[in-house]
Amino acid sequence: MSKKKVAGIVICAFIALGVIGNLMNPNDSSKPSGTTKQEQKQDAKQAPKQDSQEMQAYQKFVSIPMECDYDTVKNAFGVDGKMQHENDIGGFKTQAYEFKVGKTTAIMTFQNGALTSKAMDSLSFYKQNGEKITLDEFNKIQTGMTYDQVKDLFKRDGLLKSETAIAGSGTKLYSWMNSDGSNAVITFGDGAVNSKTQTGLK
After folding, report:
1. What is the CATH number of the domain that holds 36?
2. What does the buried/exposed string (b/e) look like for 109-140 if buried means 16 or more CB atoms within 10 Å of the residue's CB?
3. What is residue 34's DSSP assignment?
4. In which domain, by residue range, is 84 found?
């Protein structure tokens, strides 16, 4: 792999990690208590009407394919993105855009015109519905488990917070939250658990 390609990949990775870190701050004061997060469409039907725009934005966010171009993202969200970052090093042009839809914010990062990472901030449109996640369940999660295995353990879907595709490798970050704000954040690398973090689980 050339030095230019490595530099481009490293830059993109730093941007993606920075976005994820900002959006996944467990102390985010904008995150209301008494809410949880799920991505299933059947759950969307139970969301309050005033939050339907946010739910629709989230569903579009999930469905946007990696490696698509800016226009595909713009058309999906129905709004223009606001440039947040841009650089061009070694022939690799990186651009990060912020898309605001209602109360939601998505950060979409492109490298040489192709989407390489996407992240969405905390969504509060879904009230607690499902089994409470416990520390004991969290402790049972092991490296290498699949998303379906984690979902079965927690007895409900998680919310996709971010996705990154760099150099043929993909990473997805999901969160599960209880009504009291306690939560679990699980990262999947190429479909398997490679890290986990919990806040306030009992």
Report:
1. 3.10.450.730
2. bbbeeebbbbbbbbbbbbeeeeebbbeebbee
3. S
4. 3-199
Q: Which strands make up the sheet holding 159-166, listed edge to edge?
A: 82-89, 92-101, 104-111, 114-120, 159-166, 169-177, 183-189, 192-199
Residues 19-67: tens digit of each pLDDT: 444 444 434 433 333 334 444 443 333 333 446 778 888 999 999 999 9
The residue written with tokens 């969160």 in the block is 175
Find the radius of gyration of the CA atoms of the chain: 17
pTM above 0.90, yes or no: no
Q: Could you read off the pLDDT of 149-164 as tens digits, one per residue?
A: 999 999 999 999 999 9
Coil, strand or helix: which one is 196? strand
Number of domains in the chain: 1
